[in-house]
Design goal:
Layout: E1 2-5, E2 8-12, H1 20-28
Antiparallel strand pairs: 1-2
Length: 34
């Protein structure tokens, strides 16, 4: 899963090693870039 914020890559993680909550936090900016 690649997460972009304002056109910048903030995370590039395997879906199998990430929880839905973690991905949501990355998308909304509640968690620092991974």
């Amino acid at each position: 899963i690649m997460v972009l914020r304002r056109g910048h890559l903030v995370a590039n993680k395997l879906a199998s090693t990430s929880s839905p909550e973690e991905i949501t936090a990355l998308i909304v900016g509640a968690k620092a870039a991974a």
